[in-house]
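Morning, I've got a small favour to ask if you have a moment. I've dropped the whole record in just underneath, so have a look.
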Amino acid sequence: MSQSIARPKELNVPALASILELLKPITWFAPMWAFGCGIVSSGAPVLDNLGMLVLGVLLSGPLVCGTSQAVNDWYDRHVDAINEPNRPIPSGRIPGRWGINIGLIWSGLSLLVAAEIGPTVFFAALFGMAAAWAYSMPPLRFKKNGWLGNSAVAICYEGLPWFTGAAIMMHGVPSNAIMALALLYSIGAHGIMTLNDFKSVEGDREMGLMSLPVQLGVTNAARLACIVMAVPQLVVIGLLIRWDKPFHALAVSALLVAQFILMRRLLKDPKKEAAFYNATGTTLYVIGMLISAFAVRTTIGGL
């Protein structure tokens, strides 16, 4: 009588395409752009630090930002089942506990790369990694409150990569002028994060996530987002004038005026026009970041 041979269980490893989708490459642009602004603002020669720059780009985009996306999708899988059921985890394309495992693996890789670059960057990456996990993971779960969650994301997407890029080039802590710009553009990015929440109002409300559109209503949240984006840019313009950079100040002013025009369209129907504004007004915002970075190249030292 023949006996059945036990077969090992399949590992059910997700496809590479599904893993890449989980890491959301489209979201890497923001921190990589801010990292580039940090490089520019330092004024240091790029070719002298090329190897470290490659590691820095890898760290700011695919690794740290990718980690945050994987962790967020894992802890948001029930919300995504309502808002975006085709995402890799709720759709089953990332099965079992692969979502959280990828987040853990990517966290470890991020810290290894950061340690290779240097201690200043390592501690910056450690801060970013802690914020990424605290944003999504209970019991802290910063994203439960739009004020706190958006602040964490804005700092990690704009200020921290800017700081990291400058720190790599300057082999230490950047100047006060550079850190002032990184902080101001981080504050403004809080408004951009608010606009990103408009696409998931229904699911957030059902799952008890108090995003700003849920707390304030879509219209009031859109008004707040516009104010939060505009005020730091006004401060940047004032600093550029103080630093005797009138042409840079004029360029950022022109970009801000164009944003005001686009904000009028946004406020007519915030939920419908949020995606349009993110494709237009946010683009003008980040161009202003780069212009400011060029301006501060020769403004080393105090404010």
Remarks:
- The two ends are 87 Å apart (CA to CA).
